[in-house]
Amino acid sequence: xxxxxxxxxxxxxxxxxxxxxxxxxxxxxxxxxxxxxxxxxxxxxxxxxxxxxxxxxxxxxxxxxxxxxxxxxxxxxxxxxxxxxxxxxxxxxxxxxxxxxxxxxxxxxxxxxxxxxxxxxxxxxxxxxxxxxxxxxxxxxxxxxxxxxxxxxxxxxxxxxxxxxxxxxxxxxxxxxxxxxxxxxxxxxxxxxxxxxxxxxxxxxxxxxxxxxxxxxxxxxxxxxxxxxxxxxxxxxxxxxxxxxxxxxxxxxxxxxxxxxxxxxxxxxxxxxxxxxxxxxxxxxxxxxxxxxxxxxxxxxxxxxxxxxxxxxxxxxxxxxxxxxxxxxxxxxxxxxxxxxxxxxxxxx
Amino acid sequence: xxxxxxxxxxxxxxxxxxxxxxxxxxxxxxxxxxxxxxxxxxxxxxxxxxxxxxxxxxxxxxxxxxxxxxxxxxxxxxxxxxxxxxxxxxxxxxxxxxxxxxxxxxxxxxxxxxxxxxxxxxxxxxxxxxxxxxxxx
Amino acid sequence: xxxxxxxxxxxxxxxxxxxxxxxxxxxxxxxxxxxxxxxxxxxxxxxxxxxxxxxxxxxxxxxxxxxxxxxxxxxxxxxxxxxxxxxxxxxxxxxxxxxxxxxxxxxxxxxxxxxxxxxxxxxxxxxxxxxxxxxxxxxxxxxxxxxxxxxxxxxxxxxxxxxxxxxxxxxxxxxxxxxxxxxxxxxxxxxxxxxxxxxxxxxxxxxxxxxxxxxxxxxxxxxxxxxxxxxxxxxxxxxxxxxxxxxxxxxxxxxxxxxxxxxxxxxxxxxxxxxxxxxxxxxxxxxxxxxxxxxxxxxxxxxxxxxxxxxxxxxxxxxxxxxxxxxxxxxxxxxxxxxxxxxxxxxxxxxxxxxxx
Lengths: 349, 137, 357
Description:
The structure holds 3 protein chains of 3 kinds.
Chain A: E1 3-7, H1 23-32, H2 65-76, E2 80-83, H3 95-114, E3 120-125, H4 131-142, E4 147-155, H5 166-174, E5 179-185, H6 200-220, H7 223-226, E6 232-235, H8 242-256, H9 267-274, E7 275-278, H10 288-298, E8 304-305, H11 327-341
Parallel strand pairs in A: 1-2, 2-3, 3-4, 4-5, 5-6, 6-7, 7-8
Chain B: E1 3-8, E2 17-22, E3 25-32, E4 35-40, E5 54-60, E6 68-77, E7 84-86, E8 103-104, E9 106-109, E10 132-136
Antiparallel strand pairs in B: 1-10, 2-3, 3-4, 4-8, 5-6, 6-7, 9-10
Chain C: E1 9-14, H1 30-39, H2 77-86, E2 90-95, E3 100-103, H3 107-126, E4 132-137, H4 143-153, E5 159-165, H5 178-187, E6 191-194, H6 212-233, H7 235-238, E7 244-247, H8 254-268, H9 279-286, E8 287-290, H10 301-310, E9 315-316, H11 339-354
Parallel strand pairs in C: 1-2, 2-4, 4-5, 5-6, 6-7, 7-8, 8-9
Helix pairs in contact in C: 4-5
């Protein structure tokens, strides 16, 4: 069995969501010329955003179930695909405007994908601009078991561990929904702690540092202690940076325990218990021996979840796994690990 | 192991500490609310001198936002990297790190059993004036 | 495992301290003395003095490092000699002053303070102690003035590098800072970038975290962003001979960053036609790291893997004396290493970057 934990359906423009906006928001969008919410996180024509064999002439790749089924699920032999919609609704500053579009995206996912092909599951898109409204949206969508995760971005206004976000984690645990943190930024802060880089290449690389800051915050704030049943999945994050981060966190925790006396497990234990990573991009070492040794550094076979990151250009052909990954481990990554992470997939065997 | 005198009890007040050298090894003795405890003066982490650390209480928490601060005066923080050790047992308080400061058994002996004069345990005519603290090192 | 001390090792990160800002007055004009007394040295952060993320110990320093004669940790040359240089066999120590100056918002004031600190280092520290060497502290938010400051001291053998802090107001590879690299390259001086400073942005890309622990762990990520900027903006393409040292930034993160950078470069190459080499090629040619703070995996042999992957030729011992998270040279390589590797780490790499005694 194979479960693809990171697929990106394409909203071509705001008009694609109009069927799920009411008259007020639809007409306002037309009158004001709000045509598109795609953010700088993924410039449409960058070589990374769409692999050349998945390009389309008009619109964006993956606008419907048939296309993604044909181009992604079938070629990779996936039985289930989890959709993470990256249409930039998190960019909107006004709470109500943001939520008109957030709800429209979730309704679009349901109508265009979940209702059309039983292989699809989806993450509930939310905006962190208003935490109460985020919880309401989670409650609204959680009633549908085909929503299996809650989606936020790696670059947020405040570090994700901060208590203002905790009502979202409470709702997540209540409904057996992991929090999926996906590459990209709400751009409430620049892509780096040093301000705005000049090149998109830097912005994309900076996601890895962004995830590292977030994991640190979730640990220090005690999110994993307060919510021991919460699972957090880092999506399109890379994971080869993980062991050095855990070493550094453990080192400083030993001397700074008095700042965070609630931390009752080491960073490595917390990650093994409650944090997972989608496979792609691997950011692999050039050498198979190094990769094998890196798995020793990780210390757990349960961390990785299979993903293609379709349609982003992360690998050639269907070579999702780098050389050097044992077949048994590949199998666990493809099925057992995702099934253990997403309780709502439970009926999907 | 040898027994070494640290200081007279009367000069070794609660909340204070003394450090002695035994064959090149430092030992630090603490008076914790009237009871004496001694540790090897070498943090098991990187060898810092615990004698120069700060004594605090124990901060614990069951959940973020909850703070329980107890056992004031019973915890020593290494002056280098801030590792905390229970003065009484040597136990450290970070679950990711499995280190224990080496404790030394400490006894309080009445003045008549040891020699007079500061910090010596030799057999010399005894002057009983006050109790002494001695260490097995 | 007993570790033998190598005689005369290089320590690439020592922090001298002023007893008070009055120590700098011999090299400040009256105007700046008055200015400081009235307005202080205002930076991009909350306090007039001290740090927004309160340290875990006073002055972020070892509690056993207060000099017997008084003054803050690191302020006494005599005590630094006994407690550190003599005790730890330091043959070549590099001073990286973190005295309020760089990043001070009043750029003229920043420049005046930097000039004074450079004099202070040269005359109060290096002059009397041949084992110590100074870094040219520059007001980096004024790159042209920084270039002037570098040119002022160029050729003065008391100075072995140009010092920046990691949290600059724009990523350090940005063209606005290029006059600094030009002047350093012309002077044949390495550029050291030391963790800290106040960029004016939150200390993470997702805003302000709560704890000093977040800040300390986060320096690794922030320094990664700085390195990415230097590489991708083409600083090493423009100055192939420039040596860049990342100080107190960590280094175990470097192999995975290099893998990621090379991969992204491969895909997004068309965005950066000015780069003729791949990122890891630049980094392995132009960049070194200091070792402190050494990470502490439960299995220390994993550190050996990192050294092997990054290269034993790229990492140089540093103590960070007198800070609390400093590394003792006898306790820092606690995994199998050959004599040759230890010599590279403690002596040869730094000698190649900074020169001889």
